[in-house]
Amino acid sequence: MVLELDELASGIARRGASGASGGPSAPVASAAGSSPVAEKKEKEKKEKVAKEKPTWGEPGKGKEKKEKAKTKVVEEEIVQTPHGEKKDMTRAMAQAYNPKAVESAWDAWWEKRSFFTPDAKAVQGSCESKRFVMVIPPPNVTGKLHLGHTLTGAIEDALTRWHRMCGNATLWLPGVDHAGIATQSVVERRLLKEEKLTRHDLGREAFLKRVWEWKEMNAGHIKKQLQRIAASVDWTRERFTMDDRCARAVEEAFIRFHDQGLIYRDNRLVNWCPYLRTALSDLEVDHEDIAGKTLVSIPGFDDKVEVGVLCEFKYMIKGTKDALTVATTRLETMLGDTAVAVHPEDERYKAFHGKEIEHPFFPDRKMVVIADTMVDKEFGTGCVKITPAHDHNDFKCGVRHGLKQINVFSEDGNINELGGEFKGQHRFKARTTVEEALKKKGLWVGKKSHSMRLGFCSRSKDIIEPYLKPQWWMNCQDLADRSVKAVRNGELKILPEFHHQTWYHWLENIQEWCISRQLWWGHRIPAYKVVKPEQKEEKWYTGRSKEEAAAKAAKDLGQKVEVEQDEDVLDTWFSSGLFPFSVFGWPDTENNDDFKAFFPTSLLETGHDILFFWVARMVMMSLGLTGKLPFHTVYLHAMVRDAHGRKMSKSLGNVIDPLEVIDGIDLENLHKKLYEGNLPDKEIEKAKKGQAQDYPDGIPECGADALRFGLLAYTLQGRNVNLDINRVVGYRQFCNKVWQATRFGLLYFGDDFTFPGALRPDLPLAWEDRWIISRLSFCAQKTNESMEKYEFANATTATYSFFLYELCDVYLELLKPRFHGETTDENVLKDRDVARQVLYICLDWSMRLMHPLLPYLTEELYQRLPPSPTKCESITIAPFPVGVHAWRNEALEKEMEVTSEIAKQFRSQKTSLGFNPGARPEAYIRHTEEDSRVQIEKLKSQISRMAAVGAIQVLKAGAADPHGTMRDVVNEKCLIYTKVEGLDLSGEKAKLQKKVTSAQKMVESYKQKMSVEGYEEKVPANVREQNSQKMQASQKELEELQRALQSLEQAMNGK
């Protein structure tokens, strides 16, 4: 809409029911300390929203709104700015807010002007309180950023911009992660889907070439996404976890930890994905609860796999007819059994301790009954089959009893040569053939439904197998202990503090870390095995080159040797754990300005889901390699879920690219994007249904500012953010209000105005001037406090409430009479100059306070403010406002509360009576308190303006009701009257009668409560006093409403 002189207040007052329906619900964080005026307006607004919910996306509503609109908005042509050049601010402001136009060109100009690139030499020696350094949590190069990444970006950019504006030396360093298994599996799936080839068909070198091509394509898109959301990172320092600098750090870290004895090679059980043929970290395993017998599909196997059943069969005691019945949910692993365990105190089986057992398929295999306390006597038969090579508990038991470890699986999940007659069968095919074979031998007992927890590969969805394979391991015990102490002694802060228990739980129970992966994409392990001469036991040596490793081996073995590098790569978390210092050039720290200036960093901000997997490893590895914490504070934000509380999932169709919200997208193109990934056709159809349900008309264009502001407004929701895109659409309307109100305010300055740089203390400020700068100072104070405490939702609330409810709804309205008409009166001209200065401060400070939240819009509008000696080249480097104690005036703010309450009641009455918005009826106010009457008399012109009524007369307490007026109750002490001649008041009479009935019920309820038997004896005196006061207030309000109804009836009768 285009704001004309009298449209602003009425337009905002009608925002919930007019063309702005679907406008923003105000930010949820009431704790930001918004003013009573704002809180009342917020309540009024929420009540309206409850009655008339936003109808964006409802069929036919768009057309209806367009027909109602007073002014047709035509989108103006976007002027193209040469890349890196400053946008032309001499052009007239567009009539309508257009995020595409507003958000164009600024990012490239900021980058060219190096606003985000600090000088390392200048930063060296800065005290910690005057620097702010943060590395981005490097997103996986597997694909595009989603709204979860955007929340991370919005939070981190808000902090970065705030610190920069606070005058701190600021660096936010960007980068992307190579994401070993995730990236390799994505490329493998595409290869198979599009070319029917596997990586083994291509070979390692050709396959890695394909992965690098994928990386270049996606890294470019990720950079574009970050630029579009206005991420103020330093692109000159951008890093990739497999670039030369990071690769150097990874190699050095492995060698140093190996030399310290913390990294070693051992044959242990790992989480194994047979389909991908690699070990996995715990994070890469999705655990599902299986309630009972279930059939599941897995890749590489045509039949369904039966899970959630407990199979029972018998082992015969050698040389006897006795048998022990055992139970298992993984029948095929019995091919690797080497013992049966019973509890040492189980009387049923004491006679069998040490007895030999006969394996039905391997009669020559030595198997015995062992006694071990790991067995639960009460579960099943009390007998447990032991398979040391295929179960974590059995492995430990086998070590305790010296049992043989027999691995009967090959890497691809088939039965190997140790599986006898079942060799070559898929392990789940063997599950059925072993059952049949046991039945033939008379050893089968049966099977029954059984609840269990099953691990699936998060990438391939294959069932995870505990698999015995030589791997590289890291002992993290000492580093974990040091990391726990850092939090306990306050050296490292983790916020919110309820995450401390998770930190302690993980690190105080830390296990050995399997750091090797059987992949091709990643950092190849800098370890070399001696292949010539042949060794009785494997000999491994680390080195920064093959020659260095060979030299180490030759020195150790006393002879010339040949070595070959390990084919495996390192777990992605190993290189990610080095990110806070590898990006600055560690281990090459001599003459390294970046390392000296920016390490340790200040803050690590990320989602709480990777507290252990990434954050803890960064802390441990930094302590182990640099002797320092990598940062002094960790802030963990909530996880983004959809509006229904569901986890973001491609198959649900709720994974949204931020650019789809910024630019808008129709449903058809949302559907098309599903085909760009690797989803199976069945999953694509499921996702399309989800999209059609949530976005029947697609997603409208919101712009980056509205998306950021909306995400930040959600951040008080705890562990999860249930994001409703419709609410983000509402914040686009707020951006429009900021645009229109600023455009309207700029009209008051004219062409020759220059702000002097500050408000002089002796400036003759009007009542509303003193009120608005008091509220502005409060807003600055609350915004700074919110940013300091990472309470971003409170920052959105403070700025939103001030701009919309105080600057727009009140102050701009009160300015209008001061600028009305032409004049040569010197006093009037001086007052207008004062008003311009205060308005400038309000707009200037508003833009700077909102800049970390709305970077593009505020830069665009800041550039259009009149000149000032304190105005900066860019708002990005302008000082962030702080509260001015001398401006605060709480007594005056209380006067505004009274004024606003009365004005609100007049506006409500006008609306309910059906007055034309432009009508200015005569009005009257009666107050029972003398001091309040004097105050209202002083402020009646302001009330008139705010209430959109005509001349106001303040009545004495005992004066008769004005003739031909409609009375309304503000509170028990204050009444208002509006001239209603010529209006049809039948509708208002019905409403007032309802109010009278409601008030009568309230009074009656108090009477009944206070008249119950024993009330005086049983109810505490303070409660009786409260009830008495409430009763009196309710009675008085009822009487006023009855008088108002009587007044209305008199007005309708012409009296």
Characterize the structure shown.
This protein is α+β, with helices and mostly antiparallel strands and 1055 residues long. It is built from 34 helices and 33 strands. The strands form eleven sheets. Strands 10, 11, 12, 13, 14, 15 and 16 form a seven-stranded mixed beta sheet that branches. A four-stranded antiparallel beta sheet has the order 6-5-18-20. Strand 8 (294-296) and strand 9 (305-307) form a beta hairpin. The longest helix is centred in the last third of the chain and has 32 residues, at 1021-1052. The model is unreliable at 1-33 and 42-74 (pLDDT under 50).
Quick overview:
This protein is of the alpha+beta class. Helix content is 43%, strand content 15%. Residues 1-72, 1014-1038 are annotated as: Disordered.
The count of β-strands is 33
Helical proportion?
40-55%
The shape is globular
- Low-confidence spans: pLDDT under 50, at least 5 residues? 1-33, 42-74
**Total of helices:** 34
| Mean of all residue-level pLDDT scores | 89
Over the alpha carbons, how many angstroms does the gyration radius reach? 37 Å
Q: What class do helices, strands and sheet pairing give?
A: alpha+beta
Terminal Cα span: 42 Å
- What percentage of amino acids are in beta strands? 5-15%
Largest sheet: 7 strands, mixed
Domain Valyl-tRNA synthetase tRNA-binding arm: 984-1048
Region (Disordered): 1-72, 1014-1038
Catalytic activity: tRNA(Val) + L-valine + ATP = L-valyl-tRNA(Val) + AMP + diphosphate
Keywords: Aminoacyl-tRNA synthetase, ATP-binding, Ligase, Nucleotide-binding, Protein biosynthesis
